[in-house]
Amino acid sequence: xxxxxxxxxxxxxxxxxxxxxxxxxxxxxxxxxxxxxxxxxxxxxxxxxxxxxxxxxxxxxxxxxxxxxxxxxxxxxxxxxxxxxxxxxxxxxxxxxxxxxxxxxxxxxxxxxxxxxxxxxxxxxxxxxxxxxxxxxxxxxxxxxxxxxxxxxxxxxxxxxxxxxxxxxxxxxxxxxxxxxxxxxxxxxxxxxxxxxxxxxxxxxxxxxxxxxxxxxxxxxxxxxxxxxxxxxxxxxxxxxxxxxxxxxxxxxxxxxxxxxxxxxxxxxxxxxxxxxxxxxxxxxxxxxxxxxxxxxxxxxxxxxxxxxxxxxxxxxxxxxxxxxxxxxxxxxxxxxxxxxxxxxxxxxxxxxxxxxxxxxxxxxxxxxxxxxxxxxxxxxxxxxxxxxxxxxxxxxxxxxxxxxxxxx
Amino acid sequence: xxxxxxxxxxxxxxxxxxxxxxxxxxxxxxxxxxxxxxxxxxxxxxxxxxxxxxxxxxxxxxxxxxxxxxxxxxxxxxxxxxxxxxxxxxxxxxxxxxxxxxxxxxxxxxxxxxxxxxxxxxxxxxxxxxxxxxxxxxxxxxxxxxxxxxxxxxxxxxxxxxxxxxxxxxxxxxxxxxxxxxxxxxxxxxxxxxxxxxxxxxxxxxxxxxxxxxxxxxxxxxxxxxxxxxxxxxxxxxxxxxxxxxxxxxxxxxxxxxxxxxxxxxxxxxxxxxxxxxxxxxxxxxxxxxxxxxxxxxxxxxxxxxxxxxxxxxxxxxxxxxxxxxxxxxxxxxxxxxxxxxxxxxxxxxxxxxxxxxxxxxxxxxxxxxxxxxxxxxxxxxxxxxxxxxxxxxxxxxxxxxxxxxxxxxxxxxxxxxxxxxxxxxxxxxxxxxxxxxxxxxxxxxxxxxxxxxxxxxxxxxxxxxxxxxxxxxxxxxxxxxxxxxxxxxxxxxxxxxxxxxxxxxxxxxxxxxxxxxxxxxxxxxxxxxxxxxxxxxxxxxxxxxxxxxxxxxxxxxxxxxxxxxxxxxxxxxxxxxxxxxxxxxxxxxxxxxxxxxxxx
Lengths: 409, 601
Description:
The structure holds two protein chains of two kinds. Chain A contains eight helices and 14 strands. Chain A is an alpha/beta fold. Chain A folds into three domains: 2-231 and 298-345, Kinesin (3-Layer(aba) Sandwich), CATH 3.40.850.10; 234-296, no CATH class; 357-404. By secondary structure, chain B is mainly alpha-helical. Among the domains of chain B are: 242-264 and 281-317 and 335-417, no CATH class; 418-495; 503-601. At the A-B interface, strand 9, strand 13, helix 4, helix 7 and helix 8 of A face helix 6, helix 8, helix 9, helix 10 and helix 12 of B.
């Protein structure tokens, strides 16, 4: 489940080139290319992107202006109602530095604090929160006065029962207010605010629990924040990595791509045997068969911490914030493109199922047997010389055969 | 020509510019990221002024006066540095201009000892520059021309060429031939590395891999590597070769990774108090290399199975003897030829790598004995990897490793002729998967949990099938075997049902419409359950009727679902076709059974 919102902030820096129309964001390209191409390449291009919600938050005087309250009503409440039902929810804010991610999430008052206010519910429940910052693949606890010398030293781990966690991270029960650090390097770091929400309920008169987790994620500026990749993992466009230190990245990309290619192939080869798989794999997602190769590059800590929120019974909401100014054209385009491809960012493990040729062959044979049997029965019915008695024996016989056949052919 | 004193200060300026550019610039503040680079640029501009205008140099260059030629080279060095400087500060057009000036100055002498290194580096940087503009083809042209120039120089001359910086050094500071050669080779290694990336972007994957391989090889030859990093890269490259089914190359990379990694253990790190973190990182890397080995063994076995199986996935003895006969003929010469091209390391190193290789074959195993050897190597690496990636703390990694272990058993079972022993191998899979599944909280590991459910169900199904086959060989089906078959079938049903239950939403309702990623597995689970109910053995006619009824319901689910969602059809065409048949046949069959059960009604 994916909802995408475009919030628009900060009009400084040139002409406004973005327009919001219902659920569509349109971007005009007025960049006059004064490089080699010459004067004929100045045609205006408008590119439109469709989303579930689009908000215009530039000028409070504007009749279309969407306030924090409106954004929260649309998104925040759906986050909460999902969590009450037991879904894991993940809400991302993604966009260029300065385009208003942190404002939307933590501003005055943003989604972080509102979620807190609204999480009072009559049902008997427990709310635990944690607040982490990831900077340069290192984690720091924002709810704890940390060791000033080594603020980013927490390690991430997975517990079979309680899921991914950060070693030594503090968890506060709802109601305790902790002195928080200012999440000051926001343009370069991710912040994750997690609410673990546990409701006590009665199910079939037995006490039971519904647990859900809400992750509110304020991503680093989009210049640096592709959540599906490690730092430096992908090179923008086709740029060459200069230093040999990055050889590992090149090799792992190579291995990954060839793996994706070969697993698509293996699916096609199964298809050709008449055992049709849906082989429409969206680019960027790892396809169905078991991972044939192991590529020893870790997911980024962010992806790793959030993986339970990114697949299966979870809802993911992405807020893409853009600046309407012409000076931000490139960033705006890449943010919007990224947001519209956001479904593909998740590397989901899939169920591997074997080609069940054997079973199919067996069943085909059984079908043939059944057909013969039923046909002979019809024949008998039309010919009075067959007695009920003999028919009964035949059924027995077929039954026995059926059990035995099936393996011999 | 500048006076000696002037010349010394010129050299000093040059040295300062290098230090600003390469050392100081790393400490520049965030809000002035290019401060030192701009400083370096100013110095370079001054040097260029002092060397005289380029026109003069070019004009004088024509009569090939020695002084003029010298000045031209020096000017070229400055132009090169300016080019790199502008590229680094995101002024690509200016950077390109300077780099082109550099190559123009050197053009005629590019094959000389004085110029060749600089010329190659200028072309490297032009390649980088064009890749930043997204013109990868142009980058390719520059880099390939650098590659060609290296080859031509080594063929025609081969003496260690001067390093560009030497043109601004006093005689006594000049480098040794050994150092010259090292720097020159390093520049060329970069050319190859950039080409690897260019080929990757152009989707010339094989070529890209070949260039990555050569880069690794040259790092070893010129000792320009960190052992852990190198080992990990080689292990990763092995995974590329795996996907291409190049087992000889893959094994070579892995063996080299092991050998080089062991160097990291021997050489204590420069700081004497190695932190615990470093130790742990080292253990993790080792476990990661082990995981690459597991995949190697697994893929080798699976590829062997693929070449040996008949149309129902059993070992085909004809195919087996055919492949065995074929293997004798070809293996030697073909492998040797390929091997030469990829060999890592020189003498000593190479010997240890080859010794490591000998521990496991790189040829597809063709019988149980051979398969078992590969299996055992894989299993050893499973144990090694699990030592670091423990369940508690590394849930996902640990499970992936155990899944591979299970897959190793599964493929080994293919080679086992004896059904009882084969069944025991599948039981081993159950024993390793089931406890993990039980301990796993599906709220956090839903997708992995589903994978385990499905694999457990499939494994129980497989075991049931084997027991049926064993039963069929008996004169008479004894009650023990019958019970066994039924209980295995029920366990398979249980896990398919658990999988299907995992698709329900928090309100426990099965979705109207299945997501793409679970559509086929869900349908297959339904289909298998239907089949399993058809296979349950009972002498009780009523019970049998019930089972048929349940079976019918599951087949009907498939048919109904596809009627409501026609787009699902293509995902399960065969299963749907058979389900339709069964939905048509079963009711009549049940009528017949009913009639038989109460003949007097």
